């Protein structure tokens, strides 16, 4: 009898330890994060998390991800956004929110041996570029979870209708790539607390996506004592400090933990477009793409992954460049700079736009030119300084 009791006891203990290792505990258990204190608040913090949770959305896809966490040795977690996603102002890549979140996931599920962090953040770029590059920069790596962060950089788009269209194109590409992979919208903020999350929320609700606002979580804390607390969460405007990245990772992890014991919603199909499916077909021009380029005094070069980079001749001469394409829209990523500045004239479908490349720091600024039925876009440059087009974006 004793042997039977001992065997039963061993089995019971073994099963208990197995469940413990899987960390399928109550959703209030944040054991995978060592508690930390910032601005007199201890994190993880459920009340602050509740402020951040805009919507849990349909959790079917998230439950598929959690199932993978419980059974897989390897996971791919993808992030796409601007400089905040890339980790600007974090003291090291390991301190950016994406890397910290991946570490939290790994520590929560002991079955996981490796998490591949796919960080597709590019500074000073918005969702128009994001929807053109997401397939190559993120989706081809087969992510099991996707986090989208553009609520700060999309502020520069200004046109709300375009924000809706670009974000919808980005989301639809992600959802259509694999209908079981969850997509989470994440909202940071500029240094004054503003962002375009209200526009992104409109799109996210249509697709029943989980949405988490770092802005809504920390801004009430900052407003209580702006002089003291702004510098705790921000390194500069708009980049969060290490503290900010740490809090964001805590919010994402708290959301994941809160879903562990919940029943899965019914599977959900990708709904029809609400705004436009136009940018679901967006891409970056490559040197191998079958597009006619008539060139006089411009230099066409390869960027990463054979993406096209175009530079005007540095001589003081007129340079002409024209694209003949079936695409319905062309956007140009202009290399802005602080010296040796110049300008170009772009004409598409009768619409003219004169663009200068001067700015206080170097970055790529995107200008959209709709070609309509013309299919031809002509660029004229005259000046002593070289003019650079970092990227050409197209959408059918």
Structure description:
- The protein has 396 residues and is of the alpha+beta class.
- The chain has 2 domains: 36-259, 3-Layer(aba) Sandwich (Rossmann fold), CATH 3.40.50; 285-395, Jelly Rolls.
- The chain has 11 helices and 19 strands.
- The chain has helices at residues 2-22, 46-52, 60-71, 83-86, 97-108, 127-137, 160-177, 197-206, 214-224, 226-233, 242-259; strands at residues 36-38, 41-43, 53-55, 74-81, 114-121, 145-149, 183-187, 211-213, 282-284, 292-296, 298-302, 308-312, 317-324, 329-336, 343-348, 351-356, 363-370, 376-383, 388-395.
- The strands form 4 sheets. A 6-stranded mixed sheet has the order 3-8-7-6-4-5, sandwiched between helices. Strands 9, 11, 12, 14, 17 and 19 form a 6-stranded antiparallel sheet that branches. The protein has a 5-stranded antiparallel sheet with strand order 10-13-18-15-16, with no helix packed on it.
- Strand 1 (36-38) and strand 2 (41-43) form a beta hairpin.
- The radius of gyration is 24 Å and the shape is globular.
- The model is unreliable at 1-28 (pLDDT under 50).
What's this entry about, in short?
The protein has 396 residues and is an alpha+beta fold. Helices cover 33% and strands 27% of the residues.
> What share of the residues does DSSP label as strand, in percent?
25-35%
Strand order of the largest sheet: 3-8-7-6-4-5
**CATH fold field value of the largest domain:** Rossmann fold
Average residue-wise pLDDT: 90
User: For this structure, what is the CATH class of the largest domain?
Assistant: Alpha Beta
Helix content: 25-40%
Separate helix tally: 11
How many domain modules? Answer: 2
Whole-angstrom Rg = 24 Å
What is the CATH architecture annotation of the largest domain?
Answer: 3-Layer(aba) Sandwich
Structural class: alpha+beta
User: Strand count, sense and closure of the main sheet?
Assistant: 6 strands, mixed
- Assigned CATH superfamily of the largest domain: SGNH hydrolase
Number of strands: 19
Order of helices and strands: HEEHEHEHHEHEHEHEHHHEEEEEEEEEEE
The N- to C-terminal Cα distance equals 75 Å
Name the poorly predicted regions: 1-28
Shape: globular
């Amino acid at each position: 009898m004793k042997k039977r009791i001992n065997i039963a006891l061993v089995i019971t203990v073994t099963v208990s330890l197995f469940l413990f290792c899987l960390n399928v505990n109550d959703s209030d258990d944040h054991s995978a994060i060592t508690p930390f204190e910032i601005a007199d608040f201890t994190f993880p913090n459920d009340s602050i998390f509740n402020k951040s949770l805009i919507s849990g959305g349909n959790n079917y896809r998230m439950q598929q991800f959690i199932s993978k966490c419980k059974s897989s040795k390897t996971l791919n977690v993808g992030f796409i956004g601007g400089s905040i996603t890339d980790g600007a102002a974090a003291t090291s890549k390991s301190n950016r929110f994406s890397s910290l979140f991946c570490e939290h996931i790994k520590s929560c599920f002991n079955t996981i041996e490796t998490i591949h962090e796919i960080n597709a953040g590019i500074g000073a770029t918005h969702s128009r570029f994001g929807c053109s590059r997401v397939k190559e920069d993120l989706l081809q790596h087969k992510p099991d979870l996707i986090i989208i962060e553009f609520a700060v950089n999309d502020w520069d788009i200004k046109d709300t209708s375009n924000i809706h269209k670009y974000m919808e194109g980005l989301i639809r590409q992600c959802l259509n790539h694999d209908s079981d992979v969850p997509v989470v919208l994440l909202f940071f903020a500029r240094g004054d607390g503003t962002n375009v999350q209200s526009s992104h929320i409109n799109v996210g609700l249509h697709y029943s996506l989980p949405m988490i606002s770092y802005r809504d979580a920390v801004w009430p804390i900052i407003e209580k004592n702006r002089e003291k607390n702004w510098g705790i969460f921000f390194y500069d405007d708009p980049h969060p400090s290490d503290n900010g990245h740490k809090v964001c990772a805590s919010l994402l992890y708290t959301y994941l933990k809160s879903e562990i014991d919940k029943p899965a919603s019914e599977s959900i199909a990708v709904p029809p477009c609400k705004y436009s499916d136009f940018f679901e077909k967006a891409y970056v021009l490559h040197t191998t793409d079958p597009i006619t380029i008539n060139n006089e005094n411009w230099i066409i070069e390869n960027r990463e992954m054979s993406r096209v980079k175009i530079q005007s001749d540095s001589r003081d001469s007129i340079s002409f460049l024209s694209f003949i394409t079936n695409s319905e829209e062309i956007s140009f990523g202009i290399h802005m700079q602080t010296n040796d500045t110049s300008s170009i004239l772009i004409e598409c479908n009768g619409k003219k736009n004169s663009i200068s490349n001067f700015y206080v720091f170097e970055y790529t600024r995107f200008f959209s030119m709709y070609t309509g039925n013309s299919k031809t876009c002509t660029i004229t440059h005259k000046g002593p300084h070289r003019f650079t087009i970092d990227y050409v974006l197209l959408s059918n």
